[in-house]
């Protein structure tokens, strides 16, 4: 055998660099299938060292090699395909033994190439079959040779009954033709085990059935859910109907695809059904060629029993390859990263590479890349699984970062098992470039030369691209600035706890800072856990002090000095500063100072302030109150001035930071006090109120009254439990006050209920008798019910009890203008005992209410100093001067009490050459003239 080198059973696979290939599922065809007009002579061309070319069993470089043909040998070209030619080689020296197979076109030189008729390729044959579908074995559709062009036959009896003359017949045929032009013909696949053709558009009567996967031909109808089909029934072509759910239409414009056999044994079925027989099978990883058919099936042409046969591949059994291949580079991830002969791990390994090797490959399928490797100097196509490599990034970006390992290594390959080119101490600031998902690329000096190395991404932390200037609080004592981004590195500088520092963002764990050492600026690093960042936007807040005392510090550190302290429940103003600190402005000796309050020491959530607007004009409200005989003392002896009323009735006069603000506290909810704590810290050594905390708590729960208020109220009314009504008053059987030896009962009154001005003892005792308050606890609990009558009708704050802004003047609990705020000190003291509470304020506001008004110290003092009118009559006016309105007149001999200031001096004014005196007239402040010398109309007595 001069020209032939026979090959045994062993399969030899040749693959060539970047070759596009056309690999139909073909077998060797018989000579009877090739027409003589397509025969052509070609010569073998070989450029490899062996000077030979493989003859393949199929048109695929991965198929079995039948023989190696030497260069210049002539072969008969039976069929010329896109990349291969089907040839026949006749061995002249061995009794004309012939071999038939496929050779790459690039290995052939064709004679008279320009006249060669390639003929019809296998793919084109498939298309021919796609457009024909006249296989009687699949569906008994009539062919044009057997039947007329209408495809729906009409028997003679029907013609006789329907067509009466030639004109009518002609018209009838025209109508049938029009009907057919509106119908669309489809080819499809039977989906059911038995896909039925029914006699009507109903499932009642079956004309014929077809196996699942059969190819069927049918037409559209005017019925939504049915197709029309012609089948042989009882020896006649009969029109029937197929339900649309029983078939799936075939793709009218099939696309040729290539793919990988994904099953261990990938089958080509005789029908589009996995229950049908197998025409041919392929090993997993084989590269196959097919066409789109339906949503679940591809169509392929294979050699079966010596004939080219159309078969079907299920979509789940193959994986499509990409149409446009892209060249890529990547890193081998495995200890041995394999390039396989087929796209399956079960195939032979063509070549393997150590972990971290940089490989070149091309996109191929969802799970596989295609690569060209060299075997004995010959380029060969193989396949790499996608999970075995890590593709490199397209665009490299230069970055800076912090070394996290001790040491942080730069490797010779993208593998931690490779040689270390260089190492850096933890916290070192490094520069590198993006490379892959898990690796950076870096250039380092190695053996005196600049060398490319690789850093694992987990070994460094990237610095931020756009550093941001920040401020923060040093949390450690001291807080260090390091030379490197490592707490093990040298300390550049240190700061005390609470110091406000400036720095820049650098990485997720480190800030960058500039510090000055001996006047020289140096860059250092602060760990993010060692500082607390400041809020970007400062917001003003109102809150209450939670601790006793609540301190304002010079620095945001509790170890710093204290600027000022506040009692618990004090109302404070502050601004957001950091996560754990507020910033506040406090005044020391009249000078503003910036200080810091810890978040735990105040709360902006425990205070709810509501403002209620009333329609009553402020001046009108004061006018009404002046008619209600307001008093300046708790005993009801001293009349209150209008200025005093204007002060106490105006809510704007009271600061949120003062205890007086508690007069606006809503009292309709219990405070949740602890009885033991209250007895020990509040009621201890307080007369009959001693150890009565439980009674107050029970009263609050029973009558829905804040028990802190009840205690404060009782302490005020009873003089801390020492008043006569608190100690117990002896009464007879009618509730009249009697001596102790005549007493039938002893009664108690803890809230001064019924103790009217002038007859406080008698009125309070009588009310206690009528209510049955015969013990201190009875008086505490029973009196709370009376207080609740105010609260339940809306007077649910101390202010509302005293002034009743919804209906000024009546009903009101007391006449003392300072009654509401006189209880706030005790309420504040009680709340200082609590750790968990919410303060709800309801602040009243009258129409046209001024921002401030009145004078609480402008009281009417009666100290024996008065004036006697010496004129026959004298006007009393609202102000000093005749321009003020007269509110009455007094006759000679009338004595009026003079008003005294806080230094007990007579209040007077010089107006229009007269001396005017402030006096008490009808329980109000008024003015009278003393004449030019001050004693022309009056004389002062008792001075």
Task: Explain the overall architecture.
By secondary structure, this protein is mainly beta. The chain starts with a strand and ends with a strand. The model is unreliable at 1-38 and 112-181 (pLDDT under 50).
Span of the ends, CA to CA:
157 Å
- Count the DSSP helices: 14
> Which percent bin holds the helix content?
10-25%
Number-wise, the strands total: 62
The largest sheet, given as strand count, sense and whether it forms a barrel, is: 5 strands, antiparallel
Strands across the major sheet, in which order?
Answer: 7-6-5-2-8
Low-confidence stretches: 1-38, 112-181
Give the overall pLDDT as a whole number: 83
Structural class: mainly beta
Gyration radius over CA: 54 Å
Strand percentage, roughly?
A: 35-45%
Which of globular, elongated, flat, extended, rod-shaped describes the shape? elongated
């Amino acid at each position: 055998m001069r020209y032939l080198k026979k090959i045994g059973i062993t399969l030899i696979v040749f693959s060539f660099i970047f070759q596009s290939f056309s690999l139909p599922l073909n077998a060797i065809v018989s000579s009877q299938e090739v027409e003589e007009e397509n025969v052509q002579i070609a010569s073998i061309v070989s450029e490899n060292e062996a000077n030979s070319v493989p003859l393949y069993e199929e048109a695929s470089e991965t198929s079995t090699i039948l023989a190696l043909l030497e260069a210049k040998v002539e072969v008969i070209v039976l069929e010329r395909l896109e990349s291969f030619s089907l040839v026949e080689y006749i061995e002249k020296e061995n009794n004309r033994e012939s071999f038939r197979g496929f050779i790459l076109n690039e290995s052939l030189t064709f004679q008279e190439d320009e006249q060669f008729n390639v003929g019809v390729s296998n793919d084109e044959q498939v298309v021919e079959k796609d457009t024909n579908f006249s296989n009687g074995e699949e569906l008994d559709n009539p062919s044009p040779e057997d039947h007329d062009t209408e495809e729906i036959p009409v028997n003679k009896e029907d013609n006789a009954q329907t067509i009466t003359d030639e004109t009518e017949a002609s018209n009838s045929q025209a109508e049938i033709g029009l009907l057919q032009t509106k119908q669309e013909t489809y080819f499809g696949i039977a989906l059911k085990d038995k896909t039925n053709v029914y006699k009507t558009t109903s499932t009642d009567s079956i004309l014929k059935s077809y196996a699942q996967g059969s190819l069927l031909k049918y037409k559209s109808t005017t019925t939504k859910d049915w197709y029309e089909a012609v089948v042989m029934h009882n020896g006649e072509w009969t029109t029937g109907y197929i339900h649309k759910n029983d078939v799936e239409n075939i793709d009218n414009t099939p696309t040729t695809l290539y793919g990988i056999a994904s099953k261990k044994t990938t089958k080509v079925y005789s029908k589009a059904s996995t229950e049908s027989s197998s025409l041919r099978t392929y090993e997993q990883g084989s590269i196959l060629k097919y066409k789109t058919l339906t949503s679940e099936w591809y169509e392929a042409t294979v050699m079966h029993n010596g004939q080219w046969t159309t078969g079907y591949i299920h979509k789940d059994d193959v994986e499509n390859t990409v149409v446009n291949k892209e060249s890529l580079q990547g890193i081998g991830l495995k200890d041995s990263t394999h390039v396989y002969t087929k796209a399956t791990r079960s195939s032979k390994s063509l070549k393997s590479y150590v972990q971290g090797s940089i490989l070149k490959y091309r996109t191929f399928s969802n799970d596989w890349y295609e690569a060209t490797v060299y075997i004995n100097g010959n380029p060969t196509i193989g396949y790499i699984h996608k999970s075995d490599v890590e593709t490199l990034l397209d665009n490299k970006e230069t970055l800076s970062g912090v070394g996290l390992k001790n040491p942080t290594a730069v490797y010779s390959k993208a593998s931690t098992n490779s040689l270390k080119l260089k190492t850096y101490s933890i916290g070192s600031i490094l520069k590198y470039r993006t490379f892959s998902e898990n690796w950076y690329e870096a250039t380092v000096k190695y053996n005196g030369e600049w060398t490319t190395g690789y850093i694992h991404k987990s070994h460094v932390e990237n610095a931020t691209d756009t550093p941001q200037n920040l401020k923060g609080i040093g949390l450690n004592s001291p807080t260090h600035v390091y030379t490197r981004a490592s707490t093990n590195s040298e300390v550049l500088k240190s700061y005390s706890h609470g110091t406000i520092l400036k720095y820049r963002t650098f990485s997720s764990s480190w800030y960058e800072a500039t510090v000055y050492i001996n006047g020289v600026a140096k860059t250092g690093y602060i760990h993010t856990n060692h500082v607390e960042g400041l809020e970007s936007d400062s917001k003003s807040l109102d809150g209450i002090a939670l601790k006793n005392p609540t301190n304002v510090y010079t620095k945001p550190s509790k170890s710093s000095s204290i600027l000022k302290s506040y009692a618990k429940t004090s109302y404070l103003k502050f601004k957001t500063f950091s996560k754990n600190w507020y910033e506040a402005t406090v005044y020391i000796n009249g000078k503003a100072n910036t200080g810091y309050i810890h978040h735990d020491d105040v709360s902006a959530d425990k205070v709810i302030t509501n403002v209620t607007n009333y329609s009553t004009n402020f001046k009108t409200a004061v006018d009404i109150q002046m008619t209600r005989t307001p008093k300046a003392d708790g005993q009801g002896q001293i009349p209150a001035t209008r200025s005093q009323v204007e002060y106490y009735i105006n809510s704007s006069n009271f600061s949120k930071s003062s205890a007086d603000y508690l007069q606006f506290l809503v009292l309709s909810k219990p405070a949740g006090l602890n009885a033991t704590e209250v007895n020990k810290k509040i009621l201890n050594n307080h007369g009959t109120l001693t150890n009565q905390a439980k009674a107050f708590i029970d009263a609050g729960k029973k009558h829905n009254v804040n028990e802190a208020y009840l205690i404060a109220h009782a302490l005020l009314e009873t003089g801390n439990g020492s008043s006569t009504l608190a100690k117990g008053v002896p009464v007879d059987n009618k509730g009249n006050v009697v001596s102790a030896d005549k007493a039938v009962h002893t009664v108690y009154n803890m809230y001064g209920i019924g103790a009217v001005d002038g007859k406080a003892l008698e009125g309070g005792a009588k009310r206690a008798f009528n209510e049955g308050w015969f013990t201190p606890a009875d008086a505490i609990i029973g009196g709370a019910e009376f207080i609740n009558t105010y609260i339940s009708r809306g007077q649910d704050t101390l202010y509302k009890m005293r002034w009743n802004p919804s209906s000024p003047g009546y009903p009101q609990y007391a006449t003392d203008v300072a009654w509401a705020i006189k209880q706030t000190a005790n309420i504040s003291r009680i709340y200082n005992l609590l750790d968990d509470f919410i303060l709800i304020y309801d602040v009243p506001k009258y129409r046209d209410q001024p921002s401030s008004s009145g004078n609480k110290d402008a009281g009417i003092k009666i100290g024996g100093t008065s004036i006697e009118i010496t004129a026959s009559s004298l006007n009393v006016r609202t102000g000093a001067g005749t321009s003020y309105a007269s509110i009455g007149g007094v006759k000679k001999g009338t004595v009026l009490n003079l008003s005294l200031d806080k230094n007990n001096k007579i209040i007077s004014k010089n107006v229009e050459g007269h001396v005017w005196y402030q006096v008490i007239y009808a329980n109000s402040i008024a003015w009278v003239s003393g004449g030019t010398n001050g004693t022309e109309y009056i004389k002062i007595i008792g001075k």
